[in-house]
Structure formats: C-alpha cells, structure tokens
Write a structure and sequence with these properties.
The protein is elongated. The longest helix is centred in the N-terminal third of the chain and has 31 residues, at 2-32. The chain starts with a helix and ends in a 5-residue tail after the last helix. It is mainly alpha-helical. The chain has 40 helices and no strands.
Length: 810
C-alpha cells in the first residue's frame, strides 16, 4: 500500500515538473519577445503547478525548486522597465489580477522585490503589504514554501542600519516632503524595528504552518511525514538567522523585542519538534553576549516546553556556548559573575527537572554533567559551586534504588570524572563533601569502575596523598575495590579482573606519603585499618605495599629506638615494627606462607639496619616457624631456605649466641630438603654464613670447610643414587659448583681451603667425567671448562693471586 502511494507521488511530481517545463518554455518565448501580457499569463500557469496538495513535503520541495529557478529569470525581466514598458508601481498592481491566489502571491513577491529595489516606495511598506497578503495561503506546505520564497527575495532588502533601503536615505534623490510619506522621516530605530517586525511576523506564520504540517496525511504515514517535516525545519530557522544578521538588532532590542516574541511563539506552538529545533536555533545564531545578558529570559522558557522536548541537549549546548565564550577572553569573566550565570543555570535546571516529572534519571544526570562542565570551565576556582552541583545530583538520586540504567551509570562516571580531569589532582576532589555521596548511588560494578578512574588519575598525575584524613576519604571513594560491598563475595569475581583491581590498589598505596614521620605513621595506621577490613583474599596484594611504606619510614627514623614523650602514637621504629608484625600475622589467614616469610625477612633486615637485635631475632623466629609449619611444597622450601640464608648472611646485629642458633637452624633445614641436589646447594650456600667480608664480619674457616665437605658428600650421594636409578652417574654440575665455592673462599684467604683441596676436587671431577658410567652433558662440561680457564687465567696474570694458584695443576 505504501509502495503504491510512493509510485503515485512520483507520477504526480513528474506531471508537475512537466507542467512547469511546458509553461516555462512559452514564458521564455514571451520573455524573448518582451511580451509582458504573455509572460504574466504563462508564469501564472507555471506557478499554478505549485497549487497541488498531492505531494509530500520532500516531493513538493523538488517541484518548488524548479519553479524557483524560473522565477529568478522572471525577476530579471521585471527589473528592466525598457523591456516591458510598464512602471514598477503599475506592474505591482498588474500582477494582482492573476486568477489564483498562489500564483498571484508568488508574482507579487517577485515584483515586490523589484519594487523595493527601485526605491519607488518605502521598503517597509512593501514588506508589510507582502507579509500580510501571504496570509491568504493557509495550506501548510504551500504556505510554508511561499513564505520561504518571500524571506529569500527580501533578505537583502531589509531597511537595516547602513542599508541602502534605510529610511529616508533611500529617497534623497526624490523631492518628497515629510507630509507625503511620514514613515520615511522616522528614526533609524523605527526603520530597524520595521525590518524586525517583518521577519518576526513571517517567522511566526511560518512556524504555525510548519506545526500544522504534522496534521496532514493519514495516520499510518505520520512517522514518514514527521521525518519530512523535520527536513523542512531550516525554512523556518532561516528567519532567526536573518534576525541575527540585522545590524540594528542590538542587545537592547534583542532583549526587549526579539527574544520575548520568539520565545512566546516557541512556547505557544506546543510542538516537540518545533520547540527543540527553534530553541537550538536561538542558541546557535545569536551572539554569546546576548545569551549571557538575557539568560534569565531564555531559561524561563525551558520549564514551559513540552515534557518530551530534549531540553537537556538544548541546555547543554547553551552551557557549552557560554563556557567557550568565557574561556575565549578573561575580560568577559566579570560579566558571568555580574549576571550570576551559575546560579541562574542551576536554578533553571532544577525547575526543568521538577517540571518534567517523567524525565528519565539519565536525562537529569546529564544536565548536571553539563552544568558541572560549565562550572569547571568558567569558575574553576569555585569548589563550592562544584560541590553544589554534586549535591543537587545527590538530592535527585536520594530515595531511589541503586542505578541500573547503563546510560545513567555512564553519566555519573562522567560527572565524577570531570573534576579529576579538570584539576588533575584527586586532593581537590577529596575536598568535595558530596563526591563520595554521589558514588554511594552507584552499583558495585560501576563503583569499581569509578574507583579505577580515581586511581588512574592519581597515578597519571603522580599525585601524593599526604594526610591521614585525605587517605580516609580516598579509601571511602575506592571502597568498591577495598572490600566486599553489599555481601558480594570475592569468589563471584573473575580471577583476572580481581587481580588487576587489587594490583591497582597496591600501586595506589605507594602514593600515600608524607615527609613528617608522625603524619606518615597516621597514614600507615589508616592504611592498615582499611586493608585489614578488606578480607583475606585481598591481603596478598595490599599488605606488601603497606609493609614497604612502613619500612621506608623506619629507615628514615633509624636510631630512634625510644619513645617520644608526649606523643599519642610515637613514630619510632619499635612502634612501627609492632604494627608490621601484626599486619604480617594476618597473612596466615589466607594462607600465603611464602609471602609472609619474605616480608618477615624484609622486616628483619630493616631491624638489623636500626640495630634492634631482639626485633630482628623475632622476625627470623617467625620466618622459621612459618618454614617449619606452613611451607610444605618442596620447591617453595628450596626458595625459602635460600632467602633465609641470603638474609641471615647480611645480618650484623646478632650476638654470637643468637647468630649460632639461627645459622644452626638454617644449615639443619638445608640438609633436610627433599632432593639431594637441593640439599647440596643449600648446604654450600650456608658456608657464606660463616665467612662475611665486612670489616667486623665473622670469618670461621673451619665451619666453612665443614659446610663444603658436607656438600661434597651430598653431591657424591646424589651421584651414587643417579648411578643406581639411571645406570649413569649423571652430570658433574654439583661438583663444579662446589669447586667454584672452594675457589671463592681460597681467594678470600680462608686458611682451611688449600690448593691441595682444590687440586683434589679438580681430579675428582676429571675422573667422574672420564668414567664409563658418566653420561655426557654439554652444560656441565662447558661449566667445568670455563672454571679451568679461570684458574689458568689467575695463574698467568701475575701478582699475589698468581702465586696462590701456582701449585694448582689444570
């Protein structure tokens, strides 16, 4: 059915175009013959094709443009009086004898344009005559295009200031007395007012016709018709553009006449499409300065618009224009303060939201986003304005359930991100009391998204959060990442997402810092409290950065081992170590013994630097307890024992008794590892516990030798086991590693390590490699060859070391 209608329209359009072309052909012949009577006859017949009611607006436009092209040729003919021999005044009367009103008015507008240009009569009188005569056509489509034609031919002939058609100035060449044409002697303001009155009247009538257009055609074609009606909006909007181009329309006239009249028509038409488009037109075509000075008048119309009008876009565009105007020059900023732009916009948005009770929540929030953007651009120094916008948003959201609309959630994220993007400083946002209150209305997932945005802003701008109060507010903002909200279990989260979130929090914790030890301790205590509330699964991510922040503070306080009198929580290493001990103990609930063991060893090393032997011993004790009771995996045991040995080797705070106890434990655990090669490596690593290169370091050559011999026995046992189980003795890598340890201590001057021992070990390795049961291994062979080259190098380089190696035969 719809297809048939479209085919009929195409047929009717083709017929109309054919009629125009047919009559235009005869009109052209008459033009060439300068035959005025025939010109008027065929031009009227040509224009009669525009009387059709069968075409849609889109098709009618095509027909109109064909006629418009011909009318331009007709106007050129009318201008040249020598061709038709009739004065323009008589011609103006003559065309009014056309039989049908539509052709008559098109011809009248065409001659009227020539009439004004001839200056035979005041422009304002001709324009007034034309605009009133056009009232004779009330068919929406025909009337709209007729008035569009009138606007087109008259736009360059308006009696504006400086125009050749301005009042008396256009008639100085004629002998006219004031009593003959009183209107000619009016002031410039009157002349401009006449031009404004003409455009406003034409605009009003065109808008009425445009609005009535929606009632044309059957209901089933309403959607198509509405789309085509939208395409014709520029015909109406051009009138506002013409108004904005009139030089005489100054701020006062705009404020007193133009804007009130236009707004009255917009409000009264009660059409959604017209109201939205025309409000947008006003904002786009008139100067920003005018908008600022008439803000209250313009905004007062917004609550009176239809509820379905997309007022949020209109207001957003207005605020965007005003904010661009504000940043264009610092000179205009006082104007914004003078007219109280923020207060008026804020009040207007509140009234619009209140008036449009069915406005979706996303619309309201997007209005606040636009207002906040405006505020941040125009009044960046007014944090109270920013907080006021956030407070208005909280008020709108209060009493409602958590947001579920994805678009609304995105708008809230945009609202909360705007201050971060503007100030590049989360500290500014932390000063906004309503900031966390807005976040409370987000669902858990969006709360996390916003928390990530906040953390990314801090990391990007390298922002340091330097007070415990700020840290507390910050943790409140990112609580979606710090703890489970509303009973959401951690187990429900995607593992990869959870790790990424917690790693973000861990990076953030390093940005919480203050040079003042007392304040830094408060920050650490605040961090600890919030981290401990986050649940056991988060602790492996959040405890390590807390520990290292505290250790950094401890190293700044080295030497302060007493309590500070008069301080509530003294910032001393002892006090901080107590906090660290409690914190690491919490990791046992996870459990992550390997991580806890590493942190205990880090703390022990810090206690060593602070010369706190009891504290260091306690941390080592905790590490050994964890090793004994919690570390069960053989690979984890190997890693852990090497960490213990390495840390203990660097300790210089222990007395003889404590050191012996700890080294005994370390060597004992080394020999109890599951695999022989692991035992061997751990035992020879223990040799370093008895030989420390520091000036006051321990140097017990005998115990070094004992460790190395024990390692050698374990390596031999490993070779024998390999021979039994695999039928080959396996690689000699362990022997070569032990040989390197012998060489190290030999060069360090350990008297128990002799050249004879080294020689014996070299021969043992060579024998093992040459035995029938030895399996070829390129790695161990290369390792041994490299070690031999090193010995050879030491023998040849001369000096004391060369003499030591002299008796070693390679």
């Amino acid at each position: 059915m719809m297809l048939d209608g479209m085919e009929d329209e195409d047929k009717w359009l083709a017929e109309g175009i054919a009629g125009i072309q047919h009559n235009a052909f005869y009109m052209h012949r008459a033009l060439d013959a300068n035959n005025l009577r025939e010109v008027l006859k065929y031009s009227a017949q040509m224009l009669s094709e525009l009387r059709t009611s069968k075409l849609s607006p889109h098709k009618y436009y095509e027909l109109y443009m064909r006629a418009f092209d011909e009318l331009k040729k007709l106007e050129m003919f009318f201008k040249d009086e020598s061709r038709h021999g009739v004065s323009v005044v008589d011609l103006y009367e003559l065309v009014q004898h056309a039989g049908n009103i539509l052709p008559r008015l098109y011809l009248l507008c065409t001659v009227g344009s020539v009439y004004i240009k001839s200056k035979e009569a005041p422009a304002k009188d001709v324009l007034k005559d034309l605009v009133e005569m056009c009232l004779g056509v009330q068919h929406p489509i025909r009337g709209l295009f007729l008035r569009s034609y009138l606007a087109q031919v008259s736009r360059d002939k308006l009696p504006d200031i400086g125009s050749e058609y301005e009042g008396i100035h256009g008639f100085l060449h004629k002998k006219i007395l004031p009593y003959e044409f009183p209107s000619l002697w009016h002031s410039d303001a009157d002349t401009v007012m006449d031009a404004v009155e003409f455009v406003l009247q034409n605009f009003t009538e065109m808008n009425k016709l445009w609005v009535r257009l929606q009632l044309q055609g059957p209901g089933r074609l309403r959607e198509k018709l509405e789309k085509e009606r939208s395409e014709l909006r520029d015909l109406v909007g051009k009138n506002l553009h013409v108004l904005s181009q009139i030089e005489g329309v100054d701020l006062e006239m705009y404020k007193d006449t133009v804007l009130p009249r236009v707004l009255e028509q917009i409000v009264n038409c009660k059409d959604e499409l017209a109201q939205y488009y025309l409000m947008d037109c006003i904002i786009q075509v008139f100067p920003d300065e005018y908008h600022l000075q008439t803000l209250e008048t313009l905004l007062s119309a917004c609550p009176q618009l239809q509820p379905t009008v997309d007022i949020k876009t209109v207001l957003s565009q207005l605020m965007d224009r005003l904010s661009n105007y504000a940043v264009s020059s610092t000179d205009v900023l006082p104007e914004f303060l003078q007219v109280e732009a923020f207060a008026k916009l804020s009040s207007a948005i509140g009234r619009v939201i209140e008036a449009q009770v069915d406005m979706p929540i996303v619309g309201a929030i997007s209005l606040y986003v636009s207002l906040l953007t405006f505020t941040l651009r125009v009044h960046p120094d007014r944090l109270d304005y920013v907080d006021q916008v956030l407070g208005a948003c909280v008020k709108k959201l209060s009493g409602k359930p958590k947001l579920e609309d994805n678009r609304a959630k995105k708008q809230v994220v945009a609202l909360l991100s705007a201050p971060l993007d503007k100030y590049n400083d989360i500290v500014m946002a932390l000063m906004l009391s309503n900031y966390p209150r807005v976040m409370d209305h987000l669902d858990n997932e969006t709360n996390k998204v916003m928390a990530i945005v906040i953390i990314q802003s801090i990391m990007k701008n390298n922002t340091c959060i330097s007070t415990a109060d700020q840290v507390e507010v910050l943790f409140e903002l990112i609580k979606g990442l710090m703890k489970d909200l509303d009973g959401t279990a951690v187990d429900e989260l995607d593992e990869e997402d959870f790790k990424e979130e917690q790693n973000s929090v861990a990076r953030l914790l390093h940005m919480l810092y203050n040079d003042d030890p007392e304040e830094m301790l408060k920050i650490i205590c605040t961090m600890k409290k919030n981290i401990m509330d986050g649940g056991s699964k988060r602790l492996p991510f959040t405890v390590p950065p807390l520990i290292f922040s505290a250790l950094r503070l401890i190293r700044r306080l080295q030497g302060q081992d007493g309590d500070v009198a008069g301080e509530e929580v003294p910032a001393t290493p002892k006090r901080i170590f107590q906090i660290l001990n409690q914190t690491i103990e919490a990791l046992s609930t996870v459990p992550t013994p390997e991580l806890a063991l590493r942190l205990y060893l880090q703390c022990a090393e810090a206690a060593n630097d602070c010369d706190l032997e009891p504290v260091a011993y306690e941390f080592f004790t905790q590490a050994f307890v964890l090793y004994e009771e919690e570390v069960a995996d053989s690979k984890a045991q190997v890693t852990a024992i090497h960490l213990i040995i390495g840390t203990l080797q660097r300790m210089n705070v222990f007395g003889v008794e404590n050191r012996d106890t700890l080294t005994h434990k370390a060597t004992g655990y080394s020999a109890k590892l599951l695999k022989k090669p692991d035992q061997c490596r751990a035992v020879y690593a223990c040799s370093h516990l008895f030989w420390v290169d520091d000036q006051d370091g321990i140097k017990d050559g005998e115990r070094v030798l004992l460790c190395l011999k024990r390692a050698l026995r374990i390596a031999s046992a490993a070779q024998q086991m390999s021979n039994v189980t695999r039928g080959s003795s396996g690689p000699v890598t362990l022997y070569v590693e032990i040989l390197n340890k012998y060489l190290y201590f030999f060069e360090k001057g350990n008297p128990q390590i002799t050249s004879a021992a080294i020689q014996g070990l070299l021969e043992l390795i060579t024998t093992e490699m040459q035995s029938d049961s030895a399996a070829p291994n390129t790695v161990s062979d290369a390792f041994f060859a490299s070690t031999q080259r090193y010995i050879q190098f030491q023998k040849q380089k001369g000096g004391v070391m060369s003499e030591k190696y002299d008796s070693v035969k390679v």
